[in-house]
């Protein structure tokens, strides 16, 4: 409105003086400033009215009639203020020196129609802004709810691993006790206690550093080493620069557990689990290889077991299409699981 006042005042000053009216700049600014400056106040009133009583589908007839009455009253009052300023400034000889005479004379001009049209134009803009704001609020609320849902689903998936892993470990301890391997069972219970402490420590985190994940995996492998003794060999090849990378919490343990279950437990001879991690073109590549029978790609595609189906779901929730999990099975040579995720350190927003 300030720009409108400036442009129209300049145009009126030049035009009226060309017509020989000899109007000063202060007179022009007083008249045009009053005429158009009042629309600043009116605009705020319309915006407040739309906020409280918008035109909606449910009550559009009543609201249209209400705004029709208000627009008429606003325009009549606006013309009254404009008329009063003309009488005060008197830039040229007026048709009447009385307020009501001049007011009625001006009211018969086309300006009243323009004022009504201007009111409804502002009303339309106010409704457009209101619906745009509502749309943004709904969109933000929707994104917030989606984020909350994703967090809840991730938490549920992660919590699903805890009883799954716990039950398997307790079954192993029970098996050791039945076979009178009490010392081994005690060692496994001590290792389980350490594992549970690590789980509770990172219970609220969906991502941890690779160093923390490998620490947890090491505790788990120590338990399995008690169970399988010399039948299990573990090899780790981890690039040092990857230790600070963020990975999903408890992402390696279920994959290694499946490798042991299908590649070591079913093999009466010696078996090897090899874990390697490297940075590759902005991604983090993790490999879990095991000798023995292994588990086939069909098992994974069918969602065989809690660990694998859980891993797939968590990766999709965390990284969408930016992740990849591939399983290659070579008969009598074991299975390789290749997990690829974006390489980042602090958070998803703080990628390296």
Overall structural class, as computed from helix and strand content, comes to alpha+beta
Order of helices and strands, N to C? HHHHHHEHEEHEEHHEE
What fraction, in percent, of the residue positions are helical? 55-70%
User: Judging from the principal axes of the Cα atoms, what is the shape?
Assistant: rod-shaped
Give the number of helices: 10
Radius of gyration: 39 Å
Mean pLDDT: 78
Give the tags.
alpha+beta; two-stranded antiparallel ribbon; 10 helices; disordered C terminus
Q: TL;DR of this structure?
A:
Helix content is 63%, strand content 13%. The model is unreliable at 299-303 and 348-352 (pLDDT under 50). By secondary structure, the protein is α+β, with helices and mostly antiparallel strands.
Q: What does this protein look like?
A:
The protein is of the alpha+beta class. Helices cover 63% and strands 13% of the residues. The protein has ten helices and seven strands. The chain has helices at 2-18, 25-52, 60-89, 99-107, 111-178, 182-201, 210-228, 252-264, 297-301, 306-319; strands at residues 207-209, 232-238, 246-248, 271-280, 283-290, 324-330, 334-342. The strands form two sheets. The protein has a five-stranded mixed sheet, covered by helices on one side. Strand 4 (271-280) and strand 5 (283-290) form a beta hairpin. Mean pLDDT is 78; it is low at 299-303 and 348-352.
